[in-house]
Structure formats: structure tokens, C-alpha cells
Amino acid sequence: xxxxxxxxxxxxxxxxxxxxxxxxxxxxxxxxxxxxxxxxxxxxxxxxxxxxxxxxxxxxxxxxxxxxxxxxxxxxxxxxxxxxxxxxxxxxxxxxxxxxxxxxxxxxxxxxxxxxxxxxxxxxxxxxxxxxxxxxxxxxxxxxxxxxxxxxxxxxxxxxxxxxxxxxxxxxxxxxxxxxxxxxxxxxxxxxxxxxxxxxxxxxxxxxxxxxxxxxxxxxxxxxxxxxxxxxxxxxxxxxxxxxxxxxxxxxxxxxxxxxxxxxxxxxxxxxxxxxxxxxxxxxxxxxxxxxxxxxxxxxxxxxxxxxxxxxxxxxxxxxxxxxxxxxxxxxxxxxxxxxxxxxxxxxxxxxxxxxxxxxxxxxxxxxxxxxxxxx
Length: 376
Hints:
The chain is of the alpha+beta class.
């Protein structure tokens, strides 16, 4: 039974329908509730699909605007590369990597911001790779430290990863309170990868992320208070057109097995590295190592015997000496200067002006006075 007002409303609608039928018009039909709900659902779905499409389109075609997070790049202090703030603020991490023929090809050197190369013993060179801008999930083979590597590390307040060391180096690490990540105390950050016919000492590897976590857990200093070099962009326009077609830099450390050649590549404005007559490649990528800047510094060295009768060398890395710098296919004669163990060496031209480097990796070859370098 309807209430009176409902009966009145229905009676009125019936009269309107009768009028429409008499005039040849179809009666107006009321939308049922279920039809209204269906229409609403369809409308909501269409709006949702439209919103998803708009989001996808904007995400795919977005362009970074000045001042936006995507557009914000800062200069990394180690190598001058323009990168994210997080990458730029990473603390320098130094890893000692060996260069015995059985250790080649090494892995992870291509990710380093700075690489030092110096003779350890017997004419065999060894590397100290400094990581900041880039991480590397595998670096090695890792080998032991020497005092001159420790001296260079202290100039960066860097964390030092290595597998032991001669006694002079271990004593210095302790006395100078170097931020140490020795494999003998941090075995969990290192692993061995055995290879048939290769001695065990050539099989140790590490991971920069693991080392950084250990340093953080130990609350090691992360103050980036080292000297930052001056950097510039690669030449463009007429300056790029004026770059030389080639340059070959030959560095003699000791024997031909450790002879290095840096070939200037005009297309990338970088130096491709070879050693012992072969392209020096990264094991993981199979790509030839290349650096934006090459420095060859001559450093005095002295034979020494540690307190446990190990024979080796110390180097006079605090002071100054001759250096040759190779950038943009050109040689600059100059000097290196390091005021103290805790300062980073700087490189000056013969007029005393500080060298400005290209953004990217710098390779520093440290030769004794009897070594040599030639550019042609």
C-alpha cells in the first residue's frame, strides 16, 4: 500500500505517459536504480584508466626542469664527475689490488675514481684504487699494503682495504690510526675464487658496498676534508676540433712485463691503457681500461728491511718532485707536491699553476728515478 503522496506522484506520471502516447511520443522511462549504479561504475573506471594513462605518459615524456630533483647534479670531489648528491658524498675507499701476471686481468679498476700504480718488490707493480663516485660489486685480486700506499691514503682520510701488509705498513696503520679494513680482521667482506693453476694469493676479492657497511658499523670518520682538484668539461666546438689526432705515452717501471702504454683516443678524449704489450681489460666487462687524465710522477725510494727481516722499499712521498701530466692529448711538464702525510698531493705546471683535470678517472703512475716516461 502506497502513502497518499506516492499515489499522487504515480498518478501524475501516468497522466504524462498517456499524454505522450496520445501525441505520438514514447513515454519517458525512469532509470532503475541498478542502471544508475552501473553507469557510475563505468564512469569511475573510465576516469581511473584515463588517470593511469596520463601518469604513464608524463612519466615517459617527463623532462627535468631546473631546480628539480632529477636535474640536480653536483660535482664529485674525487673525480669531478657530475653525479647525484648521494654518490658525490661517498667517503673515499682505497683498495690495494695486485698486478702479478697471474692476477690479470683485474676486475673493478674501471669503477675507481683515482688509481695509483707503484712498484712493490721485484719490479712488480701494485695498485691502490680509490672509490667514491662509483661502487663495484667485485674488486681484485686484493693484496697487501705498503707504507707509501698508507701515506697516500692518509691524504684522503680514506678507509683502507687490503689483505695484510709488510710489517712497516702494518705498524704505520696502527700508529697513525688509519681507518683500517684489513682482510685479517674483516674476513666477511672478502672471498676467494680458486682458479686451477693459480696460486691462492692471487684469488682474493672484495665488494665496495660490504666494506662501506663495515666502516659505517665501526663509526669510522666520513669527513671528506681532502684537497679537491680543479676540474673542467671536455673541450667542445672549435676547441674539440683542435685536439691532437693521437698521442702515445709509454711508462717504464721496470721490466717489459710491467711496461705501460696509454694511447690517446680523440673520439672519447681519454687514454686507453695497455700493459706488457696487451690491452689492459677489465675481467667483468672485457672492456679496455681508459682514463681521462694520466699523471706520471717520479718519486725517490730507498731499500729497507722491516723489523721481521722483510726486504722492500720506502718512498719519499712527502715533499716534491717532477711530474708529467697528460690531458686532452697534450703533455704538461710540472711537479708534484705533498706537504704532509695527511695532505693530498697537488700537481703544478712549471709556472706553479695548479693543474685542471678533466672530469673522470685519473691514473697516477709512480716511477722511481731509474724509470722513464716518453710521449710521442
